[in-house]
Write a structure and sequence with these properties.
Shape: globular
Strand order of the largest sheet: 10-9-8-11-12-13
Order of helices and strands: EHEHEHEEHHEHEEHEEHEHEHEHHH
Radius of gyration: 21 Å
Number of strands: 13
Strand content: 15-25%
Oligomer: single chain
Structural class: alpha/beta
Length: 357
């Protein structure tokens, strides 16, 4: 299995490794993107990864990654020759068309083209054509493609052409169980994630915080500070998972007015903490959260601000929404996610065994 150490894919990978370990399946993991932190290494060790190869080799969405991608492919094929795994599980696209012997699953957690279209309303400029070619080749060569939502599967097909016949949505799960006991809620709004990512639309929260009813009640956690002098916003910086959990557990509302979010593990964790969810009105989040959230147009700052003010002014409604989100979050467990992947692995192995050598 491969993993990206930069974003939420890493958290997903840790939970999946743990789930597979509990089913007596061993995972050899290769990490890309950047060197892991000590905290990330501890999480993988606790999850029970059988074999770990750590690299800082670039992924296909990074700047000028092509020589690193070739080096990564060489490393991955060497590991396959040494270990003879039953399945290759790639949490990225570009290595899908390597000369694999085992069946290959490509998991598409997000992609540049669907991200760009959601943020800019158009396809990326020509400098991304080589990226598109690499992703298209990786998907076309895969034996199976997975995405965390049906909406993301549709996006992959729209931007990169036909998917293999075995293409399924497997929702993410989270091992985070929420604060216990539940903490008393305070009239504050929390937003979290990569604050520089236009798809997360955190600037909308910064603008909403200028409203009189939100002054001093919007807390932002993550990489990248809001604009200097932004009134009413408290920037918490990048927090360790348990620090963020403490902040979230005391917040009445979690806001993610995203323009693009194929799944959203941070939203799931906030639901486990009984936060009322205010989310961007996009197909993937509607698919995942149904009536357990309030939706706002990502481009309508006035609607976002009014919705947040209304919830803070009505703690009873916020609490009811938080309970709805908490109940909905019970669907997204690590065992259920692991079962989905394990069934898919079994199908791939069975097909490979029927193919003559």
């Amino acid at each position: 299995m491969t993993a990206d150490t930069v974003g939420g894919v890493f958290t997903h990978t840790v939970d999946l490794v743990r789930g597979l370990r509990d089913r007596d399946a061993g995972v050899s993991l290769v990490t890309f993107g950047r060197r892991m932190t000590a905290e990330q290494r501890t999480r993988l060790s606790d999850a029970g990864v059988a074999d770990l190869r750590e690299t800082a080799l670039a992924l296909e969405w990074m700047e000028d990654p092509w020589s690193d991608l070739q080096a990564a492919q060489d490393l991955l094929l060497e590991i396959e020759r040494d270990q003879r795994p039953d399945v290759i599980h790639l949490n990225a696209f570009a290595h899908g068309d390597a000369d694999w012997q085992a069946p290959v699953l490509v998991a598409g957690h997000s992609c540049v083209f669907s991200w760009w279209a959601a943020v800019h309303g158009e396809a990326p400029p020509p400098q991304w054509d080589r990226y598109r070619t690499a992703v298209r080749a990786g998907i076309a060569a895969a034996d199976a493609v997975v995405a965390p939502s049906a909406s993301m599967l549709v996006s992959l097909q729209e931007w990169y052409g036909p998917l293999p016949p075995l293409a399924v949505a497997i929702a993410n799960g989270s091992s985070y169980e929420g604060a216990c006991p539940a903490m008393p809620k305070q009239p504050v709004v929390v937003g979290a994630g990569r604050l520089w990512d236009e798809a997360k639309n955190v600037r909308a929260l910064v603008r909403a915080a200028r409203r009189p009813g939100l002054q001093g009640r919007v807390l932002l956690a993550g990489e990248g500070a809001p604009e200097a002098g932004s009134p009413g916003v408290e920037s918490l910086g990048a927090l360790a998972p348990m620090q963020l959990a403490q902040v979230r557990s005391a917040a009445a509302v979690y806001a993610a007015p995203a323009r693009y979010e194929p799944f959203g593990l941070g939203i799931l964790e906030a639901a486990r903490d009984r936060c009322a969810l205010v989310l961007g009105d996009i197909p993937s989040l509607r698919e995942i959260w149904g009536d357990a959230a309030v939706y706002v147009d990502p481009g309508d700052d006035e609607q976002l601000g009014h919705t947040l003010e209304s919830l803070l002014a009505n703690p009873g409604r916020a609490a009811r929404l938080g309970e709805q989100a908490h109940r909905r979050a019970a669907v997204f467990t690590v065992p259920l996610m692991t079962n989905g992947y394990a069934r898919l692995y079994d199908r791939l192995i069975a097909v490979a065994q029927r193919v003559p050598a």
